[in-house]
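Design a sequence for this backbone.
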């Protein structure tokens, strides 16, 4: 009896356990089915991506270079005669005018030399006058046959010697006057003078010329730079297309900016182009001339330069955020009419306000991702959400947005 009861209890326990296992298995299968359905639904809905169309505008294309400023004139002021520096007649760094005295070397010994040379010249002049009188007398006596031809010849030789001595004395006088002039050191042109390099009382010009200071002309100012022969050929080609000649090359506009300038505030023009290229570098030396009335540009500054190379009538402008960079270079992510993402290689050109000009496999009718760092990749299917570019036009209402597709 007990044995039969145990069998009945065991069977009931096994049957109950089987029912529980069946319920658990059914629940697991149901959850798995729901999960699969959810995954299928998620996979069938494309990602939503903000897109915009490139803007078009007339954009000036520029050639960018780096140059170095150089004073139009820069001269060392030197002591060309020996003497003690008597005075310094300017303030260090001051602006001076042409002809203004800057230094004075003690002139006393040179004034004495001038007086001595003047006396020698006057003596030579008196000797010449006397020799001429003697020659005239001998020639008169020769007409009356009261003197010999030899006396006439000797008188003429004496006159010629006296004339040569006068020429020598006058040359010595001129040299003495020049040396005296060297004691008075003046500005050769309008400009600014550096600090003096010799003090009052110092012996200067002994043995070799002594540099006393340097004067520089700052307005206008030169900027020297180099450009490739290809760029120069391009500039000349554009000039021919505009009907300009080689003489007009010096009228080509050049803009400059210092390291603290955001724009290019300085306006200049080409001043010189080397007649031949450098065989080692394939470049030409070029120089531009800039007005510098405010003296903002000082010699030996590095400046940024740009030269207009023409106008692109239909330049493409995109938001800077739409441009990405990878190992292949710059790119934008375009979305075609089927919603497929395509990588389009571009090159970056000019900046125009909040937009960036680009060139490449792109047109104004294409739709591109507003942000190249969006979590999308080439070949992926997405849903386009039109947006407005910074400073650009609104997205067109004719845009066809992809609808979610069901599997």
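Sequence:
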């Amino acid at each position: 009896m007990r044995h039969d009861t145990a069998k009945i209890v065991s069977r009931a326990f096994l049957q109950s356990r089987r029912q529980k296992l069946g319920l658990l298995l059914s629940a697991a299968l149901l959850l798995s089915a729901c999960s699969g359905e959810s995954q299928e639904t998620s996979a069938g809905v494309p990602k939503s991506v903000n897109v915009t169309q490139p803007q078009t505008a007339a954009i000036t294309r520029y050639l960018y270079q780096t140059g170095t400023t150089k004073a139009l004139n820069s001269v060392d002021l030197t002591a060309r005669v020996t003497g003690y520096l008597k005075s310094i007649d300017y303030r260090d760094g001051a602006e001076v005018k042409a002809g203004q005295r800057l230094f004075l070397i003690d002139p006393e010994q040179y004034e004495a030399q001038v007086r001595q040379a003047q006396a020698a010249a006057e003596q030579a002049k008196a000797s010449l006058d006397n020799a001429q009188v003697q020659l005239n007398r001998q020639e008169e006596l020769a007409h009356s046959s009261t003197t010999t031809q030899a006396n006439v010849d000797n008188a003429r030789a004496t006159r010629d010697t006296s004339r040569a001595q006068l020429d020598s004395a006058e040359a010595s006088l001129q040299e003495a006057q020049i040396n005296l002039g060297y004691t008075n050191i003046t500005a050769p042109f309008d400009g600014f003078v550096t600090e003096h390099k010799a003090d009052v009382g110092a012996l200067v010009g002994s043995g070799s010329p002594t540099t006393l200071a340097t004067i520089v002309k700052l307005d206008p100012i030169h900027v020297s730079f180099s450009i490739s022969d290809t760029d120069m050929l391009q500039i000349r080609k554009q000039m021919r297309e505009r009907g300009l000649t080689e003489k007009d090359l010096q009228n080509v506009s050049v803009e400059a900016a210092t390291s603290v300038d955001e724009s290019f505030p300085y306006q200049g023009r080409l001043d010189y182009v080397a007649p031949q290229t450098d065989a080692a570098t394939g470049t030409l030396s070029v120089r531009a001339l800039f007005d510098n009335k405010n003296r903002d540009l000082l010699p030996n500054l590095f400046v940024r330069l740009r030269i207009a190379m023409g106008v692109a009538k239909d330049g493409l402008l995109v938001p800077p955020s739409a441009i990405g960079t990878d190992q292949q270079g710059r790119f934008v992510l375009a979305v075609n009419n089927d919603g497929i993402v395509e990588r389009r290689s571009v090159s970056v050109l000019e900046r125009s306000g909040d937009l960036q000009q680009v060139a490449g496999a792109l047109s104004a009718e294409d739709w591109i991702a507003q942000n190249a760092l969006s979590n999308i990749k080439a070949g992926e299917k997405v849903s386009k959400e039109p947006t407005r570019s910074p400073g650009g036009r609104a997205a067109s209402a004719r845009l066809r947005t992809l609808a979610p597709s069901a599997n």
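The radius of gyration is 47 Å.
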